Amino acid sequence: MTSHDDGALLPEVIVYQGEFVDDDEPQPDAGPAPSAAPRRTARRIAHAAATAARFTAARTLPGLRNAWALTVHWAALRYMTGDEIRRRIVKKQLDHFTERRDDAVTARNTTLKQMSKLVDKAAEDGLSSPEKNRLRDLGTEADRRRNGLAVLNAMPFAPTQPTAEQISRWRGTRGAVRFTCAVTPALGALVTVTVTAPVSALITGPALLGGGWWLSRHPIPLTARPVPAELLIPELDAPADYQLDEPRSTADGRDTPTGQRPANGAETTAADEQVPGSLADARSGEQAAAVLAGAVRAEGRDLAEVAKAVEAPWGWSFYLRFATGSPDELNRDDIYKALITRLRLRRNGLLIEGDPEAGDSAFVRALLRDPFVPDVVGPLPYRPPLSMSIVDAADFGVAMDGTPLVFSLAGLMLLMVADSGGGKSGVMLALAEAVTACRDAVAFNLDPVGTGVGALGEAITLSACMDDKLIQDVLDFLLALCSARARQRARYGWGNKWRVSEGHPAIVVFTDEWPQLSDEAKAKLVRGLLLGRKEAVWFEAGSQFGTRDYLGQAIGPKLSARLLGACRRVDVTELLGGGAIAEGYRADLLQAATHTQVNDAGQIYAQGLPGMPNRPIRYQVREVTDAQAAQLGAERAAGLPDLTHTLTEAGLWQQYQDLLTRCRADSAPPPEPPAILLTLREAFRAEQDPDALTVAQLAEHLIADDADRWSRWDDRADRLAMIGRHLRKALTGVGVELSSTRLRHLPGEPTGYLLADVKAALQAFS
User: Fold this and answer.
1) Rounded-to-integer distance, Cα 300 and Cα 598, Å
2) C-beta of residue 357 within 8 angstroms of C-beta of residue 321
3) Report field, pTM of the whole predicted structure over 0.85
4) Other C-beta atoms within 10 Å of 591: how many?
5) Which of 51, 249, 661, 680 is 20–30 Å from 501 (CA)?
6) pLDDT value for 243
7) Kind of pairing between the strands at 361-367 and 603-607
8) CA distance 605 to 479
């Protein structure tokens, strides 16, 4: 057996003494081992925090970005259109233009007040020499300021329209100011508070996150707003040749330069590309509908559609449907006035009538021109004497939509309410004109302060004016007639109403200025209104006011027919009900006539007219001029219906004859003022109605009127004394009580006459 010695080939074995240690097992000598659970918890918390942060960021960062974009949109004035900025620039010029005129008016008034003080001082104590010079200088200055003001008033407002560069510079300058004075300080304050007081982040952080969350779900579109209503005045309109290129808002809220197609590829029509600024500029129904829809929506109304737009001779007629809300809201004062401004209409140029068949719809009429031009209203129809019956319908005028205003006066108890100048007397005269053409009706005329329908002259059967006792006696007679006719009806078997005929005519009583009646006369008139309808004694009353405190009783709403011209809002609601304004009865917007302007006189709203619908539409009653009334009255006077038979049957013939005698005596014309008194009054007018005129001043006018009589003493030293003496004799000789007086506020205390005394003398002859 062979043995091998390998010891020389193998390395020497080194043996280490020790033991294996497992780190996962606790070692008695190393102390307690750290736990792995907290590390796993930390990793889970970090993962959850990262997930929550990503979730929160995804749902709040878009809103925060929208908030920042909204801040930039506001600070950079991107919500203003170029036209709004242009109007603001032009408004500064208008304000400066207006301030110049206001300063001129203030300066003129200050000068006139200073003159007035000196004149008053002169009348009381006289003036020193410096004060006289001061008064003369003030007169010169007042003339200069008056002339300067006249020049300013004659100058038209001609603004300089800004260029596109000026508009851009205006926007940039004010944007820089807003960033500097508002945005930057606000952000700086937020950062400073957070750094110095970290606990404040517990409030601001959730607030920012909540705002971002809400804005992410409800982003606010960054669009240009409509031009504010206060800037939509004619003085700020752009000239016809002015062009302003500015972005146009597309359907998705982005802005697209004018003339380019929107990014979403939607096609636009020519009407969409150029919506007019007002109804006056609309050239088609689509454009007019777009203008109205924009104005209604700009006022926050939920308009569904403008279903119809029709051009009329006076403007545009629309039919609107609403998605929510009520069409009556358009008649609210704030919305109505804003629509007037946006549509560029006259003050009362918008008529809104709810559709009675559809609660979500309304008729809207926009007046650009007078709807009642003479060609539309037409001439007064000629009605020969005794040519019609009171039960026939008569044509009195026209509605603004062309519908004739045709109705019968039979059985009608009517109240017409209108301010002074509203056409009340004209409407009453038009009704009386139709009555005086009837063969089976007569007209009575009562007026406590005027002549009522007296322009028809002898065609009025009985007229009692400006005499309360006589008016009360006429009303007593009519009440007695009502009682007598009630008994006659029962005896004749005529049923529950009087049978009108030529032998038994109706009596139509026109009573103007109801509030001016005495309390006793008012009570009798109301009783007549309650009793007269069945007995063919019908009252057509007129009043400037329709409320109970003026009429004496709340009788107005109970009458069968009510007409309203230009009047108060409370009169509309009192007579037609609390919702009348919202329904479109806007008589409160009609303008009464002035001495030189007709305005809306004779235009009315009506309810209760037989055969006419109760719609809030405006009517124009045809005017009967005084000349036409006088001619028709003279023509009809010879053939009036005869009351002899019916009043004899009622046992009231003699009482009626006594009333006629009194009324005819009362209607005699007053005596004419003497010529000499009229000459003195004209002298005062020629001198601009001073408080007094001296005999020397009056002498010039007397000589101009009758030189042979008043220039006889020109060569005498006591000329003025002779003229004064003969003037007193002339006045005394014609029964004028007018005395001369010493004018002690004038140098030398000359003799003269006072304007107040001359007016009082004239009043005695009226």
Assistant:
1) 36
2) no
3) no
4) 18
5) 661
6) 67
7) unpaired
8) 31
